[in-house]
Every structure is written in C-alpha cells, then in structure tokens.
Amino acid sequence: MDRVEALGVIRSKRQEKKMTFQALGQAVGRNPVYVAAALNGQQRLGPEEAGKLAKALGLTPEVAEAVSAFPVRTDFPITTDPFKYRLMEIVGVYGDSLRDMANEMFGDGIMSAIDFTMDMEKVTGAQGEARVKITMNGKWLPYKEF
Amino acid sequence: MDRVEALGVIRSKRQEKKMTFQALGQAVGRNPVYVAAALNGQQRLGPEEAGKLAKALGLTPEVAEAVSAFPVRTDFPITTDPFKYRLMEIVGVYGDSLRDMANEMFGDGIMSAIDFTMDMEKVTGAQGEARVKITMNGKWLPYKEF
Amino acid sequence: MDRVEALGVIRSKRQEKKMTFQALGQAVGRNPVYVAAALNGQQRLGPEEAGKLAKALGLTPEVAEAVSAFPVRTDFPITTDPFKYRLMEIVGVYGDSLRDMANEMFGDGIMSAIDFTMDMEKVTGAQGEARVKITMNGKWLPYKEF
Amino acid sequence: MDRVEALGVIRSKRQEKKMTFQALGQAVGRNPVYVAAALNGQQRLGPEEAGKLAKALGLTPEVAEAVSAFPVRTDFPITTDPFKYRLMEIVGVYGDSLRDMANEMFGDGIMSAIDFTMDMEKVTGAQGEARVKITMNGKWLPYKEF
Amino acid sequence: MDRVEALGVIRSKRQEKKMTFQALGQAVGRNPVYVAAALNGQQRLGPEEAGKLAKALGLTPEVAEAVSAFPVRTDFPITTDPFKYRLMEIVGVYGDSLRDMANEMFGDGIMSAIDFTMDMEKVTGAQGEARVKITMNGKWLPYKEF
Amino acid sequence: MDRVEALGVIRSKRQEKKMTFQALGQAVGRNPVYVAAALNGQQRLGPEEAGKLAKALGLTPEVAEAVSAFPVRTDFPITTDPFKYRLMEIVGVYGDSLRDMANEMFGDGIMSAIDFTMDMEKVTGAQGEARVKITMNGKWLPYKEF
Amino acid sequence: MDRVEALGVIRSKRQEKKMTFQALGQAVGRNPVYVAAALNGQQRLGPEEAGKLAKALGLTPEVAEAVSAFPVRTDFPITTDPFKYRLMEIVGVYGDSLRDMANEMFGDGIMSAIDFTMDMEKVTGAQGEARVKITMNGKWLPYKEF
Amino acid sequence: MDRVEALGVIRSKRQEKKMTFQALGQAVGRNPVYVAAALNGQQRLGPEEAGKLAKALGLTPEVAEAVSAFPVRTDFPITTDPFKYRLMEIVGVYGDSLRDMANEMFGDGIMSAIDFTMDMEKVTGAQGEARVKITMNGKWLPYKEF
Amino acid sequence: MDRVEALGVIRSKRQEKKMTFQALGQAVGRNPVYVAAALNGQQRLGPEEAGKLAKALGLTPEVAEAVSAFPVRTDFPITTDPFKYRLMEIVGVYGDSLRDMANEMFGDGIMSAIDFTMDMEKVTGAQGEARVKITMNGKWLPYKEF
Amino acid sequence: MDRVEALGVIRSKRQEKKMTFQALGQAVGRNPVYVAAALNGQQRLGPEEAGKLAKALGLTPEVAEAVSAFPVRTDFPITTDPFKYRLMEIVGVYGDSLRDMANEMFGDGIMSAIDFTMDMEKVTGAQGEARVKITMNGKWLPYKEF
Q1: Most-buried pick from A108, F14, F58, G130 (CB within 10 A)?
Q2: C144 vs B114: CB contact, 8 Å cut-off?
Q3: D122 - beta bridge partners?
C-alpha cells in the first residue's frame, strides 16, 4: 500500500470514528494543526506518536507507518480553493508591509517556514461575531554576510 | 502628482526622518502594520489620520491626501521575494490542514481577508533565539445556503 | 464510494428521471442554483435536505450522504468553456467600473462571494428575444481599519 | 493627446468636481455602470452624449472626443484585485451550475456578454446589513446548427 | 458507458466503415464540419439526426444517444498541434486588422462564435496548387448601450 | 523616427482624413485586410505601394518608408480582447474537426498561414440580420516524407 | 489496441531486437530521423513501408497499421528535457539573427516546418572531439501579398 | 550610451549603408550568422573585430565597444514570431526522435549549444523551389558518471 | 514491467533493507549522489554496476536492467517542494552575481550541467550547528566564436 | 537618485576602473560573490563596508549609501539566460536525489538559503580542462514538530 492510499485510509477512519483533530492532537500529544498536517502528508509523526495514532483510530501497523515517512511537499500554493485563496490574498495585500516591519524590527532576513509553529483558535469579536485567530511563530533568520 | 509618486515621497520622508512604523502608528493612532499597508498603497487613512501623518512627517496637504484615495490592490501573490515566498509556502504546506480544522470548528466557510486585522511581534524562543510572531484575526464567514 | 463518484451517480439519476433543477429545488426546499451547485460538489446540503434529495431521486443513503460532505472547491476559473468564459469576460470588461461604483456607494471593500446568493431567470427582451437574467446578492464587507 | 491620457483627465475632473457616477449617468442619459465603463475605456459614448459629458465636467472638445473612439478591451480577467477576484471566484464556484441551469432552461448556447446590460444597487439584508445586488441581463444565443 | 467512450466508439466505427465526413454529412442531413464537431463532442445532433447517424454507422441506440447530450467545450485553444496552431497564428497576425475592418463596417461589437457556421473546401490556386478555403459566417453582435 | 511611431502617425492620418480601409485598399491597389495589416505592422507594402499610400494620406517620405520594413510579428494570440477571443474560441471548438476534415480531403499536412489570403465581408442572414463573412484561403502544405 | 499502445509495442520490439534506427531506415527505405519520428507518433509511414517495418521487427498487421494513422502532434516544445532544451535555447539565442539573415537572403517569410527534412550525423571536430551535425532543409515560404 | 542603444545605432548604420550580413561577415572575418548574433547582442566580437566593424560601418569607438561587452542572453524562446515559431515546432515534432538517434549514435548526453556553430544557406529544391538549409554543429557532451 | 515501475521496486527494496545511499554508493562503486540520481531515473548505471546494485538489494535481473536505460529527464524545476525551492531561490538571488564572477574568471560561457559532478556533505558550523555543504564541479564551456 | 540608478553607477565605475570582484572583495573585506550580490542589489553592505567600497571606486557618499538599503529580492528564477538556466537544470536533474540524501543524513528539513554562503573557484580537471567549482554552505533547518 503506498503512502497516499494509507493516508486516505487514516482520514476515512477519523471521519468514521467522528474523532476531531482536537481530540486526535491530545491522543497523539501534538498540536492539532500539526496532526492535521501529518494526515495531509505535509508533516510526519515519530514511531511512538504513530503508535498512539494507530491506537486512537484502530489502524493496522502498516497503515500507521505511512505517517512516519519523509513528506514530499508539492502542494502548489496557487489555488482557487476559496479558503486557501484568502490566505494568499493576505500575503498579496500585506506582504510588503510585513517585510518593511520585519526590516525595522530585525534587519534583513526572513521568518522561517521550517522552524515554525502555527495555531488556530475560535474567538469572539466586538459585535459578538465568530472570528478565526491564526498565530504563526517562526524563527527569525538573518541573511548571513560572508 | 499621482498616487504612486505621492506614496514614494511619503516613504522617502519616513526614511529621512528615521521614523519607525511603531512611532508612526502611535502618531496616527493605528496599528503599525495598518500604517505600513497604507504607505504601500494597500489600505487608506481617513482625512483626520492623514492630517496626523502629514504633521508627523512634514508633508504638504496634496501629498498627504494620497493616502486617503481608494486603493486598487493588484500586487500579485506569486512572488520570488524570499520574505513573501515563505508566507506563501506556509499556505501550501498548512492550507489544507487549516481548512480541515476550520471545517471542524466552524463548518463550511472562510476566514475573511477584509474584516481582518494583523499583528507582528518580536518574541524570544526557548533557545533564546529571536522569533517572529504574526497574529491574524479574521471574521468567520459561513457559506450562505439559499 | 468516494465523493466524486457518488455525485456522478446522483447526476445520472437526475437525467434518467428527467427531473429538472426547478423541480429538484422545490423537492429539497432550496433555490435551484444552490441545488445544482450541490450536485456539482460546490455546495452542501444538510442531512434533512439530503434525505429529501434521496427520496426525490431514489438514492441509497450512502450516495445521498455525499452531498453533505464539506466541499473542496478547486474548479479553476480560467476556462475555455464558452458559457463560463462569457461570465469571466464580463468581469474583465466591467470589473473596474463595478469597483468604482462600489467605492462610490459603499466605500472601500468587496461584495462577499460567501455570504452570497444567486438567481437565474428566463426573461423576454424588447425585441421579443429570450434573455438570461442573473441576479447576484452578496453582503458588503468594508475593509477593516485597525 | 492619446486616449489613455484623455480618459485620465476625465476621471480626474470627475473626482475634482466630486460628481458621482449616479449624477453623471443622469447628465449623460445612460446607466451609471455604462458611464463608468466608458470612463474606464471599455465602452463608448456617442457624440451627443460625449457633449453632455463635456458640459457636466467642463471638458475641452478634444478631451471629450476620446470617449467616442472604438474601445480596445484588453483588461485581462486574471486579477489579484480583491474586488474583481470575488466576481471571478463566483464564476469558478457557480459556473458549471449556471450552465446546467441554462441548458435546462434554454438548450445549448451562451448568455451574450455583448448584447448585455448590468446594474448595481445597494440593498438591505434580513439582518439589516448592507448588501450589493448586481443584475446581469444578456441575450440568449443558441448554438447554431448547420 | 460515458460520453467520451461512446464518442470514441463512433469515431472507430467511422474509420472501420471508411465513411467520409462528406458522406456522413449527407446521411445525417448536416454540414460535414458540423458532423465532425459532433463526433468530437463539440456540437450535438438532435434525436432524429442521431438516429440517422446510428443507421449509417450501425450503432447501438445507447451509443448513438451520446451525440445528443449537451457538450461541455473545454478544449483549450493554446495548442502545439501544427494544424491548429496555424489558425491561431492567423488570429495573432490579422486579428487587430480584422477588428479595425469590423469597426469600419459595423461599428463596435464582435462576430458571434455561437450563431456561427463554417465551411471547408478544396480549391485550386493560380499555380495549380491545392488550397484550403475556410469560410466563417457569424452574426454581428453590436455592443449594447444601456 | 522608429517604426512603431511612424505607423502611429499613419493611423492617425487615416482617422483624421476619415479614409476607410476600403478606400485605402483601392488607392494602394491591395485588399483592404492586407492594407490594415500593413498599418498594424504585420505586413509590408512595396516601395511603389508605399508611395501611393503616402499620396493618399499626405505622408512625408520618411513616414511612408516605415510600411516597407520587414515586419517582426510578435502580437501574441492569447488575448482577452473580445473580438479576437471569439476567433480563438472558434479554433478551440472547431479545430480538431477541421483537421479531421483536412486529413480526409488532403492527407497529412496543414493550411499555410503564410501563402495565405483573407477577406472580410458584410452579408445579410436569413432573418435579415447583419453577418460577418470571413474567407481564408491558404495553400495546402503536405508533410514531406523523407 | 489504440495507437499509443501499438507504438509502445513497436518501440519495445526494436529494443528487444537491438535494431538501430539506421538499420530500420534502410529496411523501410526512409531517412532514420523520419522513421524515429514515425515510431514516436509524429510522422506516418505508408501501407507498404508499414509492411516492411512489420517484417523487420516481426509485428502483427494490427500493430503495424498504427504507424499509418494520421498523427496528432501535441508534444509541447516547452520542455525541461536537457537534450531538447538545448535546441530551444539555440532558437532563443540565434532566432532573431536567422530571421535577419533570411530577410536578407529571401525577403519576408518563413522556412516551412512541413515541407521539411532533417538529418543527423556524427562528425569529428578540429580537436578530434565527437560533434553532432544537424541539417535542416525547409522550403522557403514568402508571405503572400494580396 | 548603454549597450541596447549602441546596438540599435549599429543596426541602423548597417541598413543605412545597405551592407549585407554576408559583406559584414567578410569585413569582420567571421560567419555572417555570428555577426548577426553580435549585432543582436547575443554574441560578442573581440576588440580587433570590433575595430573592423567600426571601419566597415563608420562607427565611433564608443559605439563599436558595445559589441565587445559580455552578453546577457535573456531572449525567451516562447515566441509568436512566425519565423522563430517554426523552429520551435521542429523541436516539438522531431525532438524526441533526435534524442533517440543521439542515444543510438553517442550514448547518453546532449549536443552543446555553447561549443556550437551554425550556418544558413539558400539552396534549390527538386521542383526548382527556393529552400533554406540550416546546419548546426555542436560538440557532443556525454553525461559524466561520478 | 516499465521503467517507472522498476525504479519504484528498487527504491522500495532499498527502504526495506534500510540501506543508505552511502552504503549503496560503495557497493556500486559510485558517488552516492549519482546513485540516488540513478534510482530517481535521472542518471544510468552501466550493466556491471547494475549487477552490483542487484546483488546489494536482491533484485531480479529484469528489474536491475531498468537503471541502465537512457534517462528521459523531464522533472520540471519549477517546484513548490520546500527543499528544492531553496536551491532555486539561490539561483534567483545569486545567479547574476555568479555569471558576473564567471565572466571575470573565464570570459563568456557557462558551467556545464552535463560534464558535471556533485557532492553533499554534513559539516559543523562555527556555532556548532549542522550545515549542508554542496559542491558542484562542472566543466567550463566557452561560447564558440565562428 | 533611486537605488537601481545608484547601483548602475557603481557597476559602471567598477568597469571603468577595471577592478575585479576579487580585488573589490579584498578592499571591502568580504567574499567576492557577496560583493557581486551587493552590486546586483541582492545583498547589502554595512555603512563601514560601504565606505570602503566608496573609497575603492571613488563614489560619492550618496551613491555609496545605496548598497546599505534593505534589498527587495524579486529576480525570478525562471530564466532563459543560458548561464543561470544550467544551474536550474541541475536542480531539476539532481533535486530529488539531494533531498533523498539530506533525509538520510539529517532527517526532514531543508538547507537554509538565508544562513548561507557561497564560493566560486576556477579549478583544473583531469584532462587539464578549466572547471568551475561552486561550493554552497547552508545551515540545516529541521522541520519543527509542535
């Protein structure tokens, strides 16, 4: 069974058991965003965590192993999926301003997308409306001079 | 004088006066990210705020007026600028997982990129390293059924 | 059975039963455009509505369930289908003018494509010719200042 | 003076005189969307209408003439402008469904984007929220069999 | 059997029976270009014409029905097929000139690609060489003023 | 004065003198489509024809010379100009069928876009409607076997 | 068996029999480049030549027939295959110069890619190094004036 | 004076003096294709050759120097210029076959586009027609194993 | 069994046997980067080396043969895989500078990507951090003058 | 004077003074690749280094200041420049193999393109041929688990 197939089985199991990412995150001992990324094949779990996942969802060892393989991340960000597009539009509208701010705060460099964590929360706005709060936290990498 | 030119003058003035976005944000009474966006032509300031900006940077009224015009936002997110690309790569790597999480938390819909605010902070990591913390906060918009 | 397959079965059933979207809309209790979108996998029906659909078309419960899953909307709008291209050309020809009008009427912001409904009617023109009338109705979202 | 330049002058005059498209539409005797399209170089006014426009905005005859030239419409619909993108996303999400509906109502063919009119209104929604209503009205063109 | 498959069967039958499009056009009662378009899934035949096609090629009713379905035309014109590319190059080389001519002859508008017929003939040139003559005939659609 | 500039002068002169392409074609002794192509820089006139053009429009010799230079044809056919797009859509919808027909009539090869002429006429349809008739006539080039 | 499959069988047979294109060219009575093109589905062999090919490689008649069908050439030249890319780079680096030369030698027109032959040889350079010599020979097609 | 400008002056001088590339090649002591490439900024002449070019065309030393600078070759091969497109189509139609042939003759590798020469000749075909003969000669570079 | 399939089998065998590229390189007698390239179908091994590979991994002769076929290298470098993208970004950021340096050191030309070797090592940086050291070594190819 | 212009002046001065990047690197106290990158606007020099550069090349303070501004790196890596393309092709041919090697050596992660240095040397190969040696040295960044 190849990786894509195994991940499909895992995602089906999760829906069948109606187990949320929140619950799965607790069962595995990781942030739910990270677990969701592992189930989408974008991050990996260590063997021990894969075992906890297998237990939580009732997976065969062979299937569980798939989440420990090295990911090949090729999901291209040019997308017409409305949810993901809004995130890209934010990069378009605010990207230059964030770089200006970062230059001011840190100098020349980038925020790492690798030494990086992410959280998503549901919060309530001033009008009582539901709002999404996404927090990104990445190491600052200054351009090396040589 | 057209808008692009006027915004160029304003940005030059800021560098000449060595005034940070933090300081400018306080002078104008807005978040520094928002002020940086206005100086990049992606957001606008009201007439009163434009007046405060003019005072802080020593701008002529004609120049200051440029930040009050309606923005035409056409900065395309496909970019090779390393700072902005890292943000787009995050959408590629984590985008599906965030939608999965959002479906779980909110149902079918998107996080608004319009009724939306953003913050950037400098924080210190567990190894004492400098880290960038970006917080996004957008209204949840459920797909309307009709 | 995966979602794409199940939606294919539902569409075949509709053609077999020669049931129009108008009739299906009434059976389900929703606008026919919305029902057509659900059958194309772009919107979803609630469990109760899915039940009505199943009854109207004689679907098995497993098949009917497919229309309740969260849609992943990735149909890219760059298209050479002549019907859809005409709609895109309209955005090209009139898009800037609509934004100008909207700026005049509402200020800076967008018409939501999420809190949004749509209707299609057949009307008769001044020369007695058949005409298509499409009505879009979306919430106005002002750009948030922060 | 070339056409692009002349249209720029006309748009500046309109802003200077703070004359809305609504008012300009009445002065010229055309729908304000159509007038906005003419000022963006996407449609043309007849000589008489151009005269009314000149009078309303105080234009020289040479400038006014520019709105009567044949338009060359090359504004490409692939756009990252958030306002126009929402319209294109609607084509992506609902386009196939509209074609299905049109096939049901009219047979095989398209809605003309040429023998076509368009309106934009401000309406109030059920929650008292401001909403945009866009009405499109295009001649139905059946595919000719030969 | 889906539409693509059925059209494949029909095209195979035609080659097996060595029946030309000319002959098929006569059998069906339509222009051979139109019949070829129907066999490529770009146009449709009415039920009666489909019956004649079935008789001429010895098709089962189920297969013959496929040519009556509504076409979804998504063959993208950007092509490296040398035959089709020459036609596109002609649009590139002569397109602006044809629009200039059309503006002179008809005013502002387009030639319809829907209310449109097409013929292809073999003719002999002044040097006795074989030449292709393609005649396009489309309704003129003036841009509607509103 | 470079070529682009000179061609701009010539086109302005034509509009100023309100001389149609029909009239210009007669004055020069060539098909009006060909003359329009020369004025768009896609074809060239011989020195004698350039002289006739100069006389008809009152051009200086230097300007007239520009239409005799070798054209560099780089107008890309991917276009959103509605007039030209309709022509490209025809290639998309009918291209495969035309190649099938051509294979039947001529064997394997292409219609030349170089040894090629083109005409545009205004004709009247069965409902009395104005129609555009475009005739293409290109040498057949069989693929050489070697 | 469809064409792609049949051509795959023929290419496998050639490798199995370790028969070079040189030898195959002699057996069929055509240039080896042409034969290689036929085996890649880009050119076709006549029935007699197909018979010789069948004999040389031990093919069934059904398989041999595939090389006589009309090719549909859709191999797009934008490629990252290093061998083919070098050829395209040559067009980029020398293309304008070749057109300048051709204009000087022949006037306005192109070298046909249809009435065209091609040869590849192995030659030895001045330093004794192996070199590739590719000879292209195409009919000159002058732009027709009309 | 920058390089692009200087090359423009040189090309104008050549046309003014009606000096062919053949003659220029002789004057400079290089292949005319190479000289044409130098005048298009794709190759460079040594100081001595630049001197001969200056003498032949009556250039100032400053202008002549421009042909000795290191070229930056960025002319993208995706083109709609009909002359260059035919060359690219040849790569599309025959590229795989040439690689197959080259693998047979030389093993795994490429023909260099750098250690490479090129010739263009006018020849006469079997029907007395003018033909273009282009000869490419490039060093064979075998893939290095390591 | 086709090549892609056979290479898949070989890569699975390697993971199953937990044999590193380092070990495999020694077993085969080649650089591990080269062996990894062969297992990805981008380079080939000679028959003898293929035999050593078969022995090391326990492959059938048929499977082992696949690594000796001529590669068709079509893996397009435009990628969103984060690991490969960083390498491409380096070309974007430093490419012009490397060419400037090369022009200074060698004159006009390129570094060959064919007569080319590559190494990857793990080294330790000044802060004790793990670092990747990639060494490229390619023949210099001067542009040939002719 | 804007940054692009100032950098142009600096590069001209370098050529005028015939000062190599090697010499400039020594004068400034940095690697010549880094200095070349700064002169191409892709890296920046500190104020002190900028002073040394000014002294070495005889620049005014205003011009020298331009190399200290924060770079906006937007040079897109899709290129047809033959020198840079070879580097990109190497990513295409060896990229997957390098990731496989890196996964083996380091686990899941990337080589940083920011905490990164680069060297270029001229070396002599086994046949006495000139070779380019490029050494890349980047920090390893493991994907953070969270």
Answers
A1: F14
A2: yes
A3: D132
DSSP assigned state of C121: E
Active site residues per annotation of D:
86, 89, 112
Task: Give the domains, in start order, of chain I with CATH numbers.
Answer: 3-68 (1.10.260.40), 82-142 (3.30.1160.10)
Query: Each residue of J77-105: b (16+ CB within 10 Å) or e?
Result: bebbbbbbbbbbbbbbbbbbbbbbbbbbb
Q: Which tokens belong to I16?
A: 């199953």
| In chain J, % of residues over pLDDT 90 | 49
Q: How far apart are CA J117 and CA I126, in angstroms?
A: 13
How far apart, in Å, are the Cα atoms of C113 and each of A89, B106, B143, D93, D120? 14, 18, 8, 9, 15
Residue E133 has pLDDT above 90, yes or no: yes
- The pLDDT tens digits for G87-97 are 988 888 888 88
Angle (nearest 5°) at CA D42 between D39 and D48: 60
From chain A, the residues in CB contact with I81 under 8 A are 72-74
Asked if E72 has any chain D CB less than 8 Å from its own CB, the reply is yes
CB atoms within 10 A of CB H131: 22
Return the half-sphere exposure (C-beta side, CA atoms, 13 A cut-off) of residue G116.
25
**Spatial separation of the C-alpha atoms in residues D131 and D124, rounded to whole Å:** 6
Q: For I25-80, what is each residue's pLDDT tens digit?
A: 999 999 888 999 899 888 889 999 999 999 999 999 889 888 988 888 776 656 77
- Match 């496909």 to its residue by tokens: B78
How far is residue J57 from each of residues H55, J20, J32, J33, J63, measured CA to CA in Å? 34, 11, 15, 17, 11
Q: Which chains touch F (3 or more CB pairs under 8 A)?
A: C, D, E, G, H
J90/chain H closest Cα distance in angstroms: 12
Both tokens of G35, joined, read 């034969």
Tell me whether H127 touches chain F (CB under 8 Å): no
CB H126 within 8 A of CB F144: no
Of G19, B99, G99, D95, which is closest to residue C85 (Cα–Cα)?
Answer: D95
Q: How far apart, in whole angstroms, are the C-alpha atoms of residue H15 and residue E44?
A: 57
Residues of G in contact with J82 (CB under 8 A): 89, 93
Q: Please count the residues of chain H.
A: 146
Model pTM?
A: 0.83
Residue numbers of B annotated as active site? 86, 89, 112
Q: How many residues does chain F have?
A: 146
* Interchain contact, J77 vs B80, CB within 8 Å: yes
pLDDT tens digits for range J73-87: 876 656 778 899 999
What are the Cα distances from residue H137, in Å, to B45, G82, G105, H111, H113? 64, 17, 21, 8, 9
pLDDT(D95) > 90 = no
CA distance I61 to I73: 24
Q: What is the Cα–Cα distance from D24 to D17, expressed in whole angstroms?
A: 11
Is A124 exposed, middle or buried, given 0-12, 13-18 or 19+ CB atoms closer than 10 A?
Answer: exposed
Instruction: Let me know: does A92 contact A84? Beta carbons within 8 Å.
Output: no
pLDDT in tens, D32-51: 889 988 998 888 899 999 99
**How far apart are alpha carbons H56 and H32 in whole angstroms?**
14
Considering only A19-23, C79-83, D26-30, which range has the smallest mean pLDDT? C79-83
Assess whether pLDDT exceeds 70 at residue G73.
Answer: yes
- Both tokens of H124, joined, read 């006469």
**For E25, which residue in chain D has the nearest alpha carbon?**
D146
Q: How many residues does chain A have?
A: 146
Of D80, D92, D93, the CB nearest to A92: D80
Ramachandran class of A27: left when φ > 0, alpha when ψ lies in -120 to 50, beta otherwise: alpha
